[in-house]
Design brief:
The protein is mostly beta strands. It contains no helices and nine strands. It has one domain: Immunoglobulin-like.
């Protein structure tokens, strides 16, 4: 089974328009990783076996949906199709 070992983020508070970078360390059998917040999904770039990075601009959302806690999901997949998920809370400003 794939395994997520560590998620490295600069913090759990992000702002609209901010560029956020992160890294995920996984077991070496993970073929791909993606991050998901609500309906938004971003693929991470594989930089080495078990190492994935992402850098993205936080998209605009309506003011009424800001200053809330959302769940950031990290999904790691192996080539056989097995998936493991780890979740973290983030606050969107």
């Amino acid at each position: 089974m794939p395994e997520i070992v560590k998620i490295i983020l600069p913090g759990n508070i992000v702002s609209i328009g901010e560029t956020v970078s992160g890294e995920v360390i996984t077991s070496s059998n993970v073929a791909s990783v993606e991050v998901k917040v609500g309906p938004y999904v971003w693929p991470m770039q594989k930089v080495a076996p078990g190492e994935f990075t992402v850098s993205l601009v936080v998209p605009h959302i309506p003011r009424a949906l800001r200053r809330r806690t959302y769940t950031l999901e990290v999904l790691a997949h192996n080539t056989r199709g097995d998936t493991v998920t780890m979740s973290l809370p983030i606050v969107l400003h």
